[in-house]
Amino acid sequence: MTLLAGDIRFAQSVNMADVPEGGGPPSARLLTSGRSNEILQDISEETRTTGRVEIAQIHSVLLNGDQSPLLGANVIVAEPPADPNVSITILSLKNPFATRADVAARIESGMVAGPEWNGYLLEDHYATMRSIQLFQRPDTPPPAIGKTYLLIYNEGKAGERRNRIRIRSADTVQRMFTEIVGGQLVDFMAQVA
Questions:
Q1: Is 146:124 a contact under the CB 8 Å cutoff?
Q2: What is the largest CA-CA distance in the chain?
Q3: 23-30 and 8-15: which strand pairing?
C-alpha cells in the first residue's frame, strides 16, 4: 500500500509542559499542520531579551495499516524563526520515554569546552549567585552577551566541578589593586567585568 502525505503525522508527548518530567511517550493528541503554539507557547519579551532554553518532545507516528517498513524518513526545519534571537535544535534520543531532563542532558553533553578565556574569577562565587566578577587586564573585551562559559573548579582533580554560565549583560570598571612584591606594596590598574 502506498504512503500518502497525511499518513505521517506528529503527536504530542504525554506531558508537553516545560518541566524536568515533561516529555514521555506519545499521546493520542496529533499536531495540526500549520497551527501556532501547539508545541511551544509564544516567547515572552523577557525570554527574548535574556534568553531561555525551552524543550518540548514530539513523536512521529505512521497512520497507515500497511505492514511495509517506512525507510528513509527525516525531519527538517524548512523555515527558521524570523527573530534572530530565536533558534531551533532538533535531536533524537531514540527513546520514546525520554523526559525533558534527558533531552537537556543530551544537549549539554554536546557543549564542548572551548579555549581558555582571558580572565579570572575575582574572589569566591557560589552556584546560586546571579552575577560573577571577573578580573582582567585593562581594556580586555568583557564576556560576550549571550555566550555560554564553562567554569571549572579543581580541574583534573578528584573533586572537579563544572558549571556553565550564560552572559545576559556585562559592564566593566577600572580599579586600583595593590599587591606585595618583594616586600613592597605595588599598585596596579586592572579591569573588573
A1: no
A2: 88
A3: antiparallel
pLDDT band at residue 1 under the 50/70/90 scheme: low
Of 22, 17, 13, residue with least CA distance to 61: 13
Claim to verify: residue 124 and residue 93 sit in the same structural domain: no
DSSP code of 77? -
> HSE-up of 164 (CA within 13 Å, CB side)?
13
Quote the CA–CA distance of 93 and 108 in Å, as a whole number. 13
Decide if 48 is inside a domain.
yes
Dihedral sign (CA 176, 177, 179, 185): positive
CB atoms within 10 A of CB 13: 23
Domain with 157, as residue range(s), is 120-192
Span 115-171, pLDDT tens digits: 788 888 888 887 778 889 999 999 888 888 878 888 888 888 998 888 888 888 999
- Neighbour count for residue 55 (Cβ, 10 Å): 20
